[in-house]
Each structure stands twice: as structure tokens, then as C-alpha cells.
Amino acid sequence: MGHSLRTSLLLAALSTLLVGCGDDGPPASEESGSTQALAVAAHRVTAEEIRRESTWHGTARPAQELTLKAPRSGQVTRVQVARGDAVEAGDEILRIAEPELAARIDVLSQREERLREEVQRWESLQEIQAAGPAEVNQARLQLLEVQETLSSLQASRAPSVRAPVAGRVIAIHAPSGSHVQPGEVLVEIAEATPMIELSLSPTDAATLVGARDLRITSGEDTFELLQVVTTTGEAGMIGAQIYIDASDDALMKPFTIRAVETHDALLIPWTALATEDAVPWVGLLKGDPPEVTRTDVELGRSHRDGVEVLDGLSEGAVILRYDPRSVAEGRTVEPVEREGDR
User: Fold this and answer.
1) DSSP labels, 78-143
2) Distance of alpha carbon 335 from alpha carbon 286, whole angstroms
3) Which of 75, 256, 288, 336 has the largest CB neighbor count within 10 A?
4) How far apart are CA 160 and CA 175, in angstroms?
5) 94-131, pLDDT tens digit by residue?
């Protein structure tokens, strides 16, 4: 009898609990909490003018360095320039004489002198009819042959080595009096056009080439850009050769290159971002009343005040200003924008 009474009491209690957990809805306190909008800090996305300045440093070097080599063996007899001198294309740099050639020229010069005397003697004999025209012409022919040979040797006795381009002498390897062999380096000349060479990342190289406002300075002097040439370097780097309008006085001086870039972009604060599986997203507020919706975004360049959004948001959109993971998706909210965001 006692056991049956206890069983009846347990069933009655269970029935009471089931009635309380039926479909009559949640308690009044929970119902009122779910319909109340949550006040959240919000940010309105607007297009802003972004100004980005990139700076690089380099040293001006010759666009080209040329080596002048000895065309033949011989002795350097005269050097017309010194290290650091400016030269124009065609200027004489030095001369080379061949000792054996000089000896032959001396011998022929002496023979020429003797033949001149002989011609004069035959001409004198002809005047007194002691010699005929044949002897005189023979002496003249011998003199002419020697003179032609001597003239040819003298022309090649000390060939001039001349500057092929305008520039500046940066080294002299064969001073006056030195003996040189064919192909031996005599002088080095730096072409006049200065060039600044940089090694850049692909992003920086694109910024440099596409810059509309490029400023090239050395000290207080500003220089005009002539051309930018890029080449593929090692380890994914890009080589950039910047040719400037400057005299060779600019060679070996330090230069600063500044590229100023401005463009409009959608900028959002870093605090508005969350990441899941390497995909960035924000809490977008949509509807009336607004609800939180997760929205994936594509990001661009980073800035001190935030990051550019390339895709996923449009101008005028309102997002959670702070960690979007702190508010459940679908939650009804009351956005509170800061004065500067409106």
C-alpha cells in the first residue's frame, strides 16, 4: 500500500513538470529579453582618399662603363687625360707607338734625306748636260717610293685611342711610357648618363613604375626622370634601373626616390575584422530593425587606421565596429555610430 502511494505521488509530480515544459512559451522574463535590441558600436563604411608614400634609397652609377683596349702592342707615348676628366665622344685619350716601327721610320727618314740629295745631284748634272733625263727620273722614282712608305708608317706610328662616348674617365691602366699588348685594358670611361639601380619586391616595382608623382632628390637638388627599366631578378625580386636627367657630377651621390600615390578606397578599422579558416569577415548590419549578418570580405593594403576592403562591402554599409564574434549572427541590434563615422 505504501509503495503504491509513493508511485502515485511521483507520477503526479512528473505530470506537473511536463505541463510546465509544454508549448505555452518561455517565462515572461526570457520573452522580454529576446525582443530587446542590443546596443552595439557600429561603423559606417565610406570611401576615403588614401595617400601612400613609398621611399627608396640608392646611389647614382654610370649607365654604362666602357673599357678601351690596346689595338696593338707598343709603348704609350702620350696620355691626354687624367682620372676624373670629362670627355666628349671622339676626344683623344692616348697614343701608342711601336718601338720596331719607330726604328723603321728612322731608317726610312735617313734614306729619304739621302735620296733627296741624290735627286738634287742628278738634276745639277742634267743642267750641265752631264746626265740624261733617265737618270734623273730614276732618282725621283726611288725618292717617291720611299716617301710613300714613310708616310704610311708615320700614319700608323702612334694611333690615337679615342673616347667612343661622352663621359668621365674613371681609371687609367696604362700611364705614359708603359708597354702594352693587343687587347690590354688602357682606360675605363663611365658614360655620362647617371642611373640609380634598385632591387624591389614585385609590389614596390609596380608602385614605382605606375607612380604619377615620382620625386628624385639628392640633397636639396631635384632631378627629372628619364626612364625606368625593370628586369626579373633573383628570389622573386625585381631589378629597377632609374635613368635621370643629370650630369656626370651626380655619379656616386646618394639619391632618394619617393613615389606618392593617392586613390579612393573603402577603409574599415582593424577591430571590425574577424578571421575563420584564413577568411576575413565582418558583422554586417542589415534590415529594419538591423540584424547581424556574417559577410566575407576581400582585403587590400594595410594602413595605420585600418585596412582597405576590395570586395564584400559597399559604401554606406554599417558594420560592427568591434569583434563581430561577440554578437551572434541574426541578433537584432541597435547600432550606435561615433560622430566621425556618420
Assistant:
1) EE---TT-EE-TT-EEEEEE-HHHHHHHHHHHHHHHHHHHHHHHHHHHHHTTSS-HHHHHHHHHHH
2) 11
3) 75
4) 14
5) 988 776 766 777 888 898 899 999 889 888 888 888 88
What nine digits make up the cell of 126?
Answer: 742634267
- 33-82 pLDDT tens trace: 455 889 999 999 999 888 888 999 999 988 888 899 998 888 888 899 99
For 64-96+159-191, the fitting CATH number among 2.40.50.100, 3.30.70.1400, 3.40.50.360, 3.30.1160.10 is 2.40.50.100
Q: Is the peptide bond before 289 cis (omega within 30 degrees of 0)?
A: yes
Q: Do 54-63+192-262 and 64-96+159-191 fold alike per CATH?
A: no
pLDDT digits (tens, 9 = 90+) for 52-61: 889 999 999 8
| CB atoms near residue 320 (< 10 Å) | 24
What residue segments make up the domains of the chain, in order of their start? 37-51+265-341, 54-63+192-262, 64-96+159-191, 99-156
What is the per-residue pLDDT across 245-266, written as a single tens digit (0 to 9) for each? 888 788 789 999 999 888 899 9
How far apart are alpha carbons 241 and 252 in whole angstroms? 15
How crowded is residue 285: how many other Cβ atoms within 10 Å of its Cβ? 24
* Cα distances (angstroms) measured from residue 301 to each of 22, 212, 305, 307, 309: 55, 19, 11, 6, 8
The CATH code of the domain at 37-51+265-341 is 2.40.420.20
Question: pTM for this one?
Answer: 0.48
The answer to whether domain 54-63+192-262 has CATH 2.60.120 is no
